[in-house]
Write a structure and sequence with these properties.
By secondary structure, the chain is α/β, with parallel strands linked by helices. Helix content is 47%, strand content 14%. Bound molecules: cytidine-5'-monophosphate (C5P).
């Protein structure tokens, strides 16, 4: 049977991946980060010394996209007792401790941190605008969403697919549903998703959240020099929104049947809760 599909789209720094991971955790669903696919292809391209900003290289980049084997593995935390009786905790330390983590493998190599570097972020939008690259990613991620195929890491036993003689293994490797996040999930990748969510937030709020994230992730304060200007971050987000909204192939837009959620004045728990309630309602 087809798993229950939740599509989450929205502009940069709207909280998609954090929200999507926590929704997946609450519902016991798989999580698929489609941005990671574009990031892997960008990383592979840069590693080969190919310049993604030169459109003469589009053919070569599309080739890389088709050939890359990309796998995700999300490790979920145990749900906190507070979540079980409907009283989610808002404590920051509890929250970061419980946030699921996704490991990303490119041709069996763990590239989880390589794909989050500044240089990859800088070039990923150009790579994601190449039609044949989008087609290749579509093939890869749609297969994950349309069937009950589990997202596997390279070390998972091949026998997992043949689970006829192990009821428990069958249950564990067949998720009830999946949450996928990106820019075109509700419009292109999973047009028949059971629940589509379009996250929006004021660009100033998103800039402030992005700054918080930079501060939390920085190894030391020298790394942050010159980055702590909220106006500059806001301008950069607005520039990327514009690029994603106006590109020719699969631009960022809200699907007609998507539920729009403005998170400007919501806590992460409140936005996760709103989506979980809606999913439970429709299941
Ligand atoms: O979500 P994340 O920031 O990792 O995505 C990286 C980039 O990949 C985005 O800026 C966007 O250009 C592209 N992307 C896309 N379609 C998706 C997911 C990501 O074009 N479904």
């Amino acid at each position: 049977t087809k798993p229950f599909q939740v599509a989450i789209d929205g502009p940069a720094a709207s909280g998609k991946s954090t929200t999507a991971k926590l929704v997946a955790q609450r519902l016991g669903f798989d999580y698929i980060d489609t941005g990671a696919f574009y990031r892997c292809i960008t990383f592979a391209t840069l590693s080969k010394g190919i310049d993604p900003s030169d459109s003469n290289n589009n053919h070569q980049i599309s080739d890389i996209a088709e050939r890359s084997v990309i796998q995700l593995q999300t490790v979920f935390a145990e749900p906190p007792p507070a979540f079980n009786n409907g009283q989610p905790s808002s404590s920051l330390s509890t929250r970061s401790f419980l946030l699921p983590t996704t490991r990303v493998f490119l041709n069996s190599k763990d590239v989880s941190s390589d794909i989050r570097t500044g240089i990859v972020s800088k070039h990923v939008s150009a790579v994601a605008a190449i039609g044949n690259v989008r087609e290749a990613v579509l093939q890869k991620v749609r297969n994950l969403g349309a069937t009950d195929a589990h997202v596997k890491g390279p070390n998972d036993s091949k026998n997992d697919n043949n689970n006829s003689n192990s009821g428990l293994a069958a249950k564990l490797s067949t998720p009830k549903g999946l949450v996928m996040d990106g820019r075109d999930i509700g419009t292109v990748v999973l047009p028949h998703a059971d629940l589509k969510v379009f996250l929006v937030a004021d660009s100033r709020v998103r800039a402030e959240r992005r700054l918080q994230e930079l501060i939390m992730n920085a190894a030391d304060s020298t790394e942050l020099q010159g980055q702590l200007d909220v106006e500059a971050v806001q301008k950069d987000l607005e520039r990327r929104d514009e690029l994603d909204r106006t590109r020719k192939v699969s631009p960022l837009r809200k699907a007609e049947d998507a539920m729009e959620l403005d998170t400007s004045n919501l806590t992460i728990e409140e936005q996760v809760d709103a989506i979980v309630q809606e999913a439970l309602h429709r299941q």
